[in-house]
């Protein structure tokens, strides 16, 4: 039985990657955001997970509108980041966990999810930035990755309930994996932000705090809003909270918040970072 | 949408959220050539080819006249109206030297300073660490 030791939830704003490249972590603008990772660094040093299962959305590096999967699961032995079109590059390559990927694929299909499977997949800033934040100053990532992409780009998007249920299905898959790996799940993106339209710059502190308050104890509370409700509340890119819901769904044990940091603004975004502990389920 | 409406080949009117483009199937179809061009800008050599000959590069992707006009005039609301999706448009914006605050200002009619001030008007830091 594989253990899901916890969950890390964080914004993935590309500008964070630029700030890291420029060494601006202590600048007054950035420090309140980066300081939110101190508890995560301590926790990762103690728990030393082997694999990160990352729920994220691609921003037009791997997927285009010619073929846009609602859910896609990576099953590659390795993954690369590449140029996303505006010069953000140089992220380290990722090592995959294809056996675990295929186990997750097989197990979620048994549970009537139908993901696209990807044996070759580029990972964009939505994976690379959170990895840089969690494991700074390393020559190689200390975890393998299973990337799980959700469509948050082209409507219709998956419903919040479907995202949570996908996460639950992935959680069951990880729990039934017989390998010794310790797994951390990650949900990236959000919180409220909107890049497009006359409402660009929209930020909703009340909705974000509602999500942060309920993420650990009662994620079902976030299902009272449908996807377009979330677009209205959180902004057209704030709907990336679906990735958080999926990652939270994978944590099926006793879940407790260890740390939470909410800082507005980072670029156009209400940025947030949350660490949740997942104590193993007691089995009959 | 009701099943009866679907049977009659009608789609329910899309929900509108003020000031908020919903990138749905209609926009994805309309915007396809523009977004395909923007997707190509993941490659530096394609960015250079666009810079060298914008009109010729747009020809390769079959942009509509509305899309060409919006590209030529750096008209961000026009690019969105023509079906551009902001995740792909960000790659074009990079070529034009525009960041997401610039895009925000151009869409809201504010100066960049005013747009930044609006973002800062929400400023808050709220941190919790368990004992």
Keywords:
heterodimer, A: 284 residues, alpha/beta, Protocatechuate 4,5-dioxygenase, Chain B, 8-stranded mixed β-sheet, two-stranded antiparallel sheet, globular, B: 131 residues, mainly alpha, Protocatechuate 4,5-dioxygenase, Chain A, 10 helices, oxidoreductase (chain B), LigA_sf (chain B)
Folded structure, characterized:
Chain A: This is Protocatechuate 3,4-dioxygenase. Chain A: Keywords: Dioxygenase, Oxidoreductase. Chain A: It comes from Croceibacterium xixiisoli. Chain A: Residues 7-269 form the Extradiol ring-cleavage dioxygenase class III enzyme subunit B domain. Chain A: One of its GO terms (molecular function) is oxidoreductase activity, acting on single donors with incorporation of molecular oxygen, incorporation of two atoms of oxygen. The complex is a heterodimer of chains A (284) and B (131). The radius of gyration of chain A is 17 Å and the shape is globular. The longest helix of chain A is centred in the middle third of the chain and has 16 residues, at 160-175. Chain A has a domain at 3-189: LigB-like (Protocatechuate 4,5-dioxygenase, Chain B), CATH 3.40.830.10. In chain A, the strands form two sheets. Chain A has an eight-stranded mixed sheet with strand order 6-3-7-2-8-1-10-9, sandwiched between helices. Chain A has a two-stranded antiparallel ribbon with strand order 4-5. Chain A has nine helices and ten strands. In chain A, a hairpin with a 2-residue loop joins β9 and β10. Chain A has helices at residues 14-21, 31-34, 38-47, 98-110, 125-134, 160-175, 205-214, 227-234, 241-249; strands at 3-10, 51-56, 71-74, 78-79, 94-95, 116-118, 144-150, 182-188, 254-266, 269-279. By secondary structure, chain A is α/β, with parallel strands linked by helices. Chain B is mainly alpha-helical. Chain B has a single domain, classed as Dioxygenase LigAB, LigA subunit (Protocatechuate 4,5-dioxygenase, Chain A). Chain B has helices at 3-7, 25-30, 32-40, 44-52, 54-61, 65-72, 76-81, 86-95, 100-108, 112-120; one strand spanning 124-129. In chain B, α3 packs across α8, α4 crosses α5 (54-61) and α9 (100-108) crosses α10 (112-120). The longest helix of chain B has 10 residues, at 86-95. The radius of gyration of chain B is 19 Å and the shape is globular. The termini of chain B are far apart. In chain B, 32% of the residues are buried. β9 of chain A pairs antiparallel with β1 of chain B, so a sheet runs across the interface.
